[in-house]
Design goal:
single chain; about 260 residues; alpha/beta; TIM Barrel; 8-stranded mixed β-sheet; 7 helices; 8 strands; about 15% strand; hydrolase; GH; Hevamine-A-like; Glyco_hydro18_cat
Length: about 260
């Protein structure tokens, strides 16, 4: 994502589905919580920075030997602590009494190892009577370099593929071929059933990949909406969407 830390495991309250147009229509998802000037949000938000401006991190030094893959034995404990911290019984939950119901994987650096293990452990909490939602935002080059193996588990409820900042698989003016080819690969190769087209909400929101609303409506959406896994458009982010006085979301909602 633009202007975020290279690796974050964010709270699932990351997006709000808005402007849903009916049971069979697509929805628009939009990121909120990354800019102090984007207004308030009554429904939900997500955090990547906690107390004293610190980014959450796990330091296993002294507890296992990463060079021999010994740290995998700590997987159940890590999973338990993570779940209790976000939605269980920990007294240090970041949102107080609020109990979250899922986790969002936005991994854009570090390692590509064991995210599948974490997804399996977290998904196991769904067997205890309450659905645990898992979502991810991979880059559009397939397979994703970081969460590709995790997505193979089939445990992710929503996948928000980022079709920007990656010229080989994004839209360029008048040419939808690269994006369409990548979309078909994503929708045919991973077992997730709900896949969103991730786009910047304004030219300033990403280095490349912005699609004018008129082009999205007339040239892009007609090529991808016939996919059974299509669920709508994800926008990065509300702050940038608000820069468009005409309303990017409003301009595309009847076509999504």
């Amino acid at each position: 994502m633009a202007s975020k830390s290279t690796m974050s495991l964010a709270l699932l309250s990351l997006v709000t589905l808005v402007l849903t147009l009916g049971a069979k229509a697509g929805g628009i998802a939009i990121y909120w919580g990354q800019n102090g000037n984007e207004g308030t949000l009554a429904e939900t938000s997500f955090l990547t920075t906690f107390g004293n401006g610190q980014t959450p991190a796990i330091n296993l030094a002294g507890h296992c030997d990463p060079t021999t893959d010994e740290c995998t034995k700590l997987s159940p404990e890590i999973n338990c602590n993570l779940w209790n911290f976000l939605g269980g019984h920990s007294s240090s939950r970041p949102l107080g009494a609020a109990v979250l119901d899922g986790i969002y994987f936005d991994i854009e650096g570090g390692t590509d190892q064991h995210w599948d293990d974490l997804a399996k452990y977290l998904s196991g909490y769904s067997k205890r009577g309450k659905k645990v939602y898992l979502t991810a935002a991979p880059q559009c080059p397939f397979p994703d370099a970081w969460v590709g193996n995790a997505l193979k588990t089939g445990l992710f409820d929503n996948v928000w593929v980022q079709f920007y900042n990656n010229p080989p698989c994004q839209y360029t003016s008048g040419n939808v071929a690269n994006l369409e080819s990548a979309w078909k690969q994503w929708t045919s190769a991973i077992p997730a059933h709900k896949i969103f087209l991730g786009l910047p909400a304004a030219p300033q929101a990403a280095g490349s990949g912005f699609i004018p609303a008129s082009d999205l409506n007339s040239q892009v959406l007609p090529h991808i909406k016939n996919s059974a896994k299509y669920r709508g458009v994800m926008l990065w982010s509300k702050y940038y969407a608000d820069l468009d006085l005409d309303g990017y979301s409003s301009s595309i909602k009847n076509h999504v």
